[in-house]
Write a structure and sequence with these properties.
Largest sheet: 5 strands, antiparallel
Strand order of the largest sheet: 3-2-1-4-5
Number of domains: 2
Distance between the termini: 52 Å
Order of helices and strands: HHEEEEE
Length: 151
């Protein structure tokens, strides 16, 4: 009798191969739902170029937003409307947001901003929502939501 034989049938034990297969299937399903063919079970079929491009797009958006939050001047941003572009990045829809930007102490003006928005945060971008934001000092049409850089 092995040292771990008594764990079989207990909550933490059981059929390890079955649990591993179920976990792998769940990971594959997530990848497929995000637009990646092949999944993890078939690395040869995984589109590494798409995975890499999506990661680069998400990182670029995050870095640009953080840069603006670090150097930008304060504003209030209202989301007037948004349109799904039909593009997806890592399973996240890309939207064009029609905004009204009001600089602190200045006149309001319209801006269009293209953003990748995860489904889990989409409700925070409802039409009519007003949030603090920042305006890029080099281009008043380049804005970011928030009041300070994130880490």
């Amino acid at each position: 009798m092995g040292a771990f034989d008594s764990l079989a049938g207990m909550g933490a034990g059981g059929d390890w191969a079955k649990q591993a297969a179920e976990a792998q299937a769940a990971a594959d399903e997530i990848l497929k739902n995000s637009g990646y063919a092949g999944g993890t079970a078939d690395p040869a079929a995984t589109d590494l170029a798409s995975l890499s491009a999506d990661r680069a797009a998400l990182e670029a958006q995050g870095h640009e937003q953080n840069r603006i939050l670090g150097v930008g001047s304060p504003a209030t941003i209202t989301i007037d409307s948004k349109v799904d572009t039909g593009e997806a990045v890592a399973g996240n829809a890309t939207y064009v947001l029609n905004l009204t930007v009001t600089p602190e102490g200045g006149e309001a003006y319209p801006v269009q901003l293209k953003l990748i928005i995860p489904p889990s945060t989409l409700s925070g971008y409802a039409d009519g929502t007003t949030m603090p934001g920042r305006i890029d000092p080099a281009d008043k049409n380049n804005v970011a939501f928030g009041d300070k850089p994130f880490m």
